[in-house]
Amino acid sequence: MLKIENLHAEVDGKPILKGLSLTVNAGEVHAIMGPNGAGKSTLGYVLGGRPGYEVTEGSVMFDGQDLLALEPHERAAAGLFLGFQYPVEIPGVSNVQFLREALNAQRKGRGEAALSGAEFLKLARAQADALAMPQDMLKRPVNVGFSGGEKKRNEMVQMGIIGPRLAILDETDSGLDIDALRVVGDGINRIMRGEDKAVLLITHYQRLLDYVKPDFVHVLADGRIARSGGAELAHELEREGYGAVAA
User: Which of 143, 170, 172, 196 is most buried by a 10 A CB count?
Assistant: First the structure.
């Protein structure tokens, strides 16, 4: 599904990714772990197409397409979803309005018919219920006044409505208490577990991986994959730290 080869990227002229290669197949969950400054968030932003992140070498193929040649909205329509470490607030725009426009724009990009208001509301309410999010939060401005945990839960509702093929989740566990962590973990499993879907889960800690069991764990250090293994590698990182494991 996703094939990254020798990816180099820089921000403001500073090299961040320095030859990263990674293959993610359909049906797999890959966890990316590593110390601050290793390039984890940069990887997510490059894949999502965030401005200011310049690819200087390498290639990224997504479902047979040159991902780097696509605009951000085209990447989204192709099935890529990027979850943020710090979801942004959008005053004056309700969740319902934002999500309906986003979903129908992607459906249009794929040549599919737009959902009617009634069809969309049924879908949105079902996803909110599945994430134990109060219905009135769908009417509120996007993330405005939400706690950290509510923002992450809202982002899972967004992901459930959009229904991507590849989810890149940047530190989704950040700011979550134990109960919210379980709800979010269950949401990722419900929405993204499937033979035609995949997850790239960027995290500092092993705790989310107790709920979202990864097929592979990769240690990112100095802009490259320094080591890969199974779920046991995350436990080793918890015990030994990044320095010992990535050396």
Answer: 172
Two tokens, residue 232: 């046991």
Rounded to an integer, what distance in angstroms lies between the CA atom of residue 152 and that of residue 147? 9
SS (H, E, C) the chain: CEEEEEEEEEECCEEEEEEEEEEECCCCEEEEECCCCCCHHHHHHHHHCCCCEEEEEEEEEECCEEHHHCCHHHHHHHCEEEECCCCCCEEEEEHHHHHHHHHHHHHHHCCCCCCCHHHHHHHHHHHHHHCCCCHHHHCCEECCCCCHHHHHHHHHHHHHHHCCCEEEEECCCCCCCHHHHHHHHHHHHHHHCCCCCEEEEECCCCHHHHCCCCCEEEEEECCEEEEEECCHHHHHHHHHHHHHHHC
- Mean pLDDT, residues 138-162: 89
Mean pLDDT over 88-115 rounds to 91
> pLDDT at residue 43 above 90?
yes
- Can you tell me the distance from the alpha carbon of 130 to that of 9, in angstroms, rounded to the nearest whole number? 38
Tokens for 21?
Answer: 């290669």
Measured N-to-C along each axis, helices 117-130 and 148-162 cross at an angle, to the nearest 10 degrees, of 130
pTM recorded for the entire structure: 0.90
Distance of CA 94 to the CA centre of its chain: 22
Q: Which amino acid is at 85?
A: Q
| Residue matched to tokens 């069991």 | 213
Domains of the chain (ranges, CATH numbers): 2-246 (3.40.50.300)
pLDDT on residue 178: 83
The rounded distance, in Å, linking the Cα atoms of 13 and 36 is 19
